[in-house]
From TrEMBL:
It is found in: Plastid, Chloroplast. The keyword Transmembrane helix does not apply. One of its GO terms (molecular function) is structural constituent of ribosome. Belongs to the bacterial ribosomal protein bL20 family. CDD domains: Ribosomal_L20. This is Large ribosomal subunit protein bL20c. InterPro entries: Ribosomal_bL20 (IPR005813), RIBOSOMAL_L20_CS (IPR049946), Ribosomal_protein_bL20_C (IPR035566). Transmembrane segments: none annotated. The gene is rpl20. One of its GO terms (cellular component) is ribonucleoprotein complex.
């Protein structure tokens, strides 16, 4: 069996990994074994935090909507607002009312009054 020269393939593989880790600090961007470990760790964190980001933004939107609804009426809350939205079959996600609540409170108040009635 003939001998296989692997230099080109191995170098290409390492270069590809190095390009991924070029912005890392210290040995994390220089040593091949450390780069590989850091790449795996970075990809795990990215995957985990994509789900976490969705969760965090949903919490933020709920907080914003709740704050604006409580400004208008003391006894009214976010949960009642969402309940009434579903009762009236107005299917809005939480992102849009949160944006309206922050950017244009008067418009949000109009929507809010229509939902209550």
């Amino acid at each position: 069996m003939t001998r296989v020269r692997r230099g080109y393939t191995a170098r290409r593989r390492r270069t590809k990994i190095r390009l991924f880790a070029s912005s890392f600090r210290g040995a994390h961007s220089r040593l091949t074994r450390t780069i590989t470990q850091q790449k795996m760790r970075a990809l795990v964190s990215a995957y985990r935090d994509r789900g976490r980001q969705k969760r965090d933004f949903r919490r933020l939107w709920i907080t914003r909507i709740n704050a604006v609804t409580r400004e208008n009426e003391v006894s009214y809350s976010y949960s009642r607002l969402i309940h009434n939205l579903y009762k009236r079959q107005l299917l809005l996600n939480r992102k849009i009312p949160a944006q309206i609540a922050i950017l244009n409170k008067n418009c949000f108040c109009i929507i809010y009054k229509k939902i209550i009635k």
